[in-house]
Write a structure and sequence with these properties.
Layout (H helix, E strand, L loop, with lengths): L3 E8 L11 H9 L4 E6 L4 H13 L2 E8 L10 H7 L6 E6 L3 H8 L5 E5 L2 H13 L1
Parallel strand pairs: 1-2, 1-3, 3-4, 4-5
Helix pairs in contact: 2-3
Length: 134
């Protein structure tokens, strides 16, 4: 069992193209080399999503970061992960980097979850540092 995990979930339109050179993931890997890191998007295959669910279940300090590039895109591709994230877990943090009304409603309706919204990468990095230090 790894202690730390970082899931980076891209919310973008399929036509927009998926980013593969992800500065935040590089930053996490540099600063937390012991963390299990996975990135996925709304078009990810079932194997990737299965691995993401396992990371959510098996790690004691997990951060899930939604990077929103398209605030109006339906998030049905992430539903299996959302179901797992909504299970009460003491050491899980959900970050929304950008604005997405559907995700905001889902997480804000559950005050038992640690959920924060940021617009800048530096703010996201500070929150990651704080959570992993705690």
């Amino acid at each position: 069992m790894t202690e730390k995990a970082f899931l980076y979930l891209q919310v973008t339109k399929a036509a927009a193209g998926i980013a593969y050179d992800l500065p935040l993931i590089k930053w996490v890997k540099t600063h937390y080399p012991d963390a299990a890191v996975l990135d996925a998007d709304l078009q990810s295959d079932e194997i990737t999503l299965h691995y993401a669910r396992r990371l959510l279940q098996q790690n004691s300090r997990t951060i899930v970061c939604f990077k929103v590039e398209a605030p109006d895109v339906p998030i049905t591709g992430f539903m299996p992960l959302l179901e797992e994230m909504l299970q009460p877990q003491e050491q899980q943090l959900v970050l929304l980097w950008g604005e997405h009304s559907q995700l905001q409603r889902i997480f804000q309706a559950r005050p038992q979850l640690q959920f924060k919204i940021y617009l800048e990468e530096e703010e996201v990095q500070e929150e990651i540092k704080s959570f992993y230090a705690g």
